[in-house]
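Q: I'm writing a short methods note and want an example of a predicted protein-small molecule complex. Could you take the sequence and the SMILES for NAP and return the bound structure as C-alpha cells? Please keep the output block clean; save any remarks for afterwards.
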Amino acid sequence: MNNLILITGATGFLGGATAVEALKRGLGDRLLFLSRADTAEAALLRVAVNLKILGATDAEICRIAVDQIICADLSGLDLVAHDARLDRVSTVIHSAALATFSNHPSLEKINVDGTVALAKLLYKRPSLARFIYIGTAMACGEHAGDAGSIAERLDLPLDAQQHLVPYTRSKALAEAMLRSEFPDLPLVMARPSIIVGHTRLGCAPSQSIFWVFMVAQMLGAFTIALDQKIDVIPVDWCAGAIVDLALRDKLSSRVYHLSAGDRSSVSFREVDIALAAARGVSPVGAAYEQVAIESLGKLLPQMRECIPGCNDRLLLRALKLYGGFAGLSYVFRNDNLLAEGIAPSPPLTDYLARCVDSARDISIAEQMKWDFK
Ligand SMILES: NC(=O)c1ccc[n+]([C@@H]2O[C@H](COP(=O)([O-])OP(=O)(O)OC[C@H]3O[C@@H](n4cnc5c(N)ncnc54)[C@H](OP(=O)(O)O)[C@@H]3O)[C@@H](O)[C@H]2O)c1
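A: Understood, no commentary inside the block.
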C-alpha cells in the first residue's frame, strides 16, 4: 500500500481528533503515527489512550497495530530516516507542536527545526503527494489589518514585534522555512483558528481555552467588546476538515483557514447568553465591562472572590495573554475552505452547553492546566 497517511501529534488534542476522524472514515489501515515513547508498544498505548478519550471505539482502536507506529521525537528524526515505511507515505498531516503561549525554550527547536526535519525526512520520497502543515490562523500577527477580517494569505509576518507570543511567530517561521527550503514540497497550510471543545464530547477531552469564557462571565469583564465576534471552532469539525483536505485528489489553494469565519463566528454577547443558559445563571449583559489589557489587574479582588482556589497572579497573567488575542476580535475568512465544498463549522453556541456539562465538576484551576502544561 503506497498511500499511507502519516499523522504527527496523535497524542494531542487536534492530532488525536484527526486520527479518530480518519478511523471513523475507514482509513485505519492507511494510518502511520509518529509518536514519542521509549518503545513502539508504549507509543501505541499512548496514542490508543488518547484516541479513546477523543471518541474512538475499542474496535477501531484494536485495529491499530504496532507496525503503524514510528517511534520518534521531532528532534531526533535522523534515527528513523531509513524506515522503509516512509517511502509509502502519500500524505503527511503534521499536527505535532509545542502549542503554548509561554516562552518555552524549545519552541523554535520543536516547531521550526522539528518541522523542517520532518519535511526533510519525507522530501522527494516516491509516494509523497501532500504535506499538510497544521499552522495557526493567529500566526497572522497582531497587525493583520483588514478591519479584523483576516484573509487566507500565504505570507505571514516573521518579525517578533508583530506577534503577541513567541508561539505564533514559531508557527509563521515554520511555514516560511518549509516554503524556502523545500520549494517543490506538495505543501498545504491548514491554519485552525481557536479550538474549543468537541460537538459531542464537550470539553471532556480537553478544557483548553474553555475556562477563559467561564472566567470572563464570572468576572463580568474581559478585553473584547460584547458585540464583537470571536472565531472559535470545535476540534471534531476541525479534524473533519483536515481529513477532507487530505483526501481530495486536487486542492485549489495552498492555504486554508480552518475557522468559523463570517458565517459561524458568534458575538461575545451570544456566548454570554448561551453560557449563562447552560450554567443556569443570568447573562452578564449590560453589566459587562470591557477592560483594556493593562487594566486587567484591577480585577484581582474580583478574581479572588469569584474564582476561589485559583492562583490569582497566574490567572491574571493568563487573562492578559488570552485577552490579547480576544481583544483583536479577528474573524478568519475561510473562502478557500468553503470553495472546496467543506461544510462550515457549527457555531460555538450550538455546543457550548455540552462544554459546560462536561466541565461542571472541574475547577477553573484544573482547567487552566491544559494551557499551562
Ligand atoms: N488547540 C488550538 O486551539 C490550536 C489552534 C490553532 C492551531 N493549533 C495547532 O494545532 C496543532 C495541534 O495542537 P494541539 O492543541 O493538538 O496541541 P497538543 O494537544 O499540545 O498536542 C501536541 C502534540 O504534539 C506532540 N509533540 C510535541 N512535541 C513533540 C516532539 N518533540 N516530538 C514529537 N511530537 C511532539 C505532542 O506529543 P506528546 O504527547 O509526546 O507530548 C502532542 O501529540 C499544533 O500545530 C498547533 O499549533 C492548535
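A: Remarks, as requested: The two ends are 38 Å apart (CA to CA). The longest strand covers residues 89-94.
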